[in-house]
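ok so dumb question maybe but i'm new to this and my supervisor (M.) told me to 'just get the structure for 2-hydroxyacid dehydrogenase' and walked off. so i did the thing. is this what she meant?? sequence i used:
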Amino acid sequence: MPKSKVVITDFINPPLHHEEKILGDIAEVEALNAFSEDDLTGKIENADAIMLYHFISLTEKTINRLENCKLIVRCGVGFDNVDRALAREKGINVANVPDYGTEEVADSAIGMMLTLTRGVHYMNNRLQRGAGPWIYEQVKPTHRLRGRTFGIIGVGRIGTATALRAKALGMRVIYYDPHVPDGRDKSLGIERIEELDDLLSQSDVVSAHCPRTDETQHMINDETIAKMKPGAFLVNTARGGVVDAHAVLRAIEGDHLRGAALDVLETEPPEEDDPLMVAWRNPSHPAYDRLILNPHAAFYSEEGLDDMRIKGSQNCLRVLNGQKPRNVVN
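this is what came out, is it supposed to look like this??
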């Protein structure tokens, strides 16, 4: 009996030890290392299962050409880079890996928050290039974190883990999430806020932990940032489209936001001439000292990366063996 074919579209390159250990008996595994959807042409059409990461999207262009595909696993939490509705029409399950990087992303969000609120990034940047005096007064006023308000948008797995970490620091933790059932606040010992505007106006730090959907696309924009406290901080380790990064830049330029940390952007990697990048790299621009950008790395640890690959491969194995997939999102 011929082996099935599993294609890894992007992000992961050989050696494929994890994937081959799990799938090797029943499938040929091929990594395409694609950086655009066009790179898949002629290489993916006969795949029985697909493992998709976050460098590219699977749209109508590709999905309509799939001949045998039973499952597309988005090896990560977010799944906005695959046309789930069309896949369903074609009888293809789309699944994600929702639990692979919970601790890592929560740790990253808190790390970014601490780096911003304690002035670590700001002072290091300025002193390194000889800007300003060698004294703490460069970051006045800096306030004790205990008792400050940490506002979370979305209390799924990662939002919950982040809430517990902020709570351990003695912060008042509040959240906005219209999709979770009543009682989440009671079980976690945090406060539910019914309206996003109220969360924004109360928070000293706002941290986004929601998926990118039509509802959340540019949820944080010029209008909503204006409702945040003057001097507040913003952290995004969720999806790039949740936050309008150019609105963040404008809020830093206007001195409304004291700082921001963005692990994710709408276009990754961003264009070199993107105004955000130009400002971030310009020592004379306030974003140089007050904006932290990371390359979609909040999920990363060696253990987390292994989880992503192993759990994605295991789901492909289930389907190729005639079993139902886990974590279907369409």
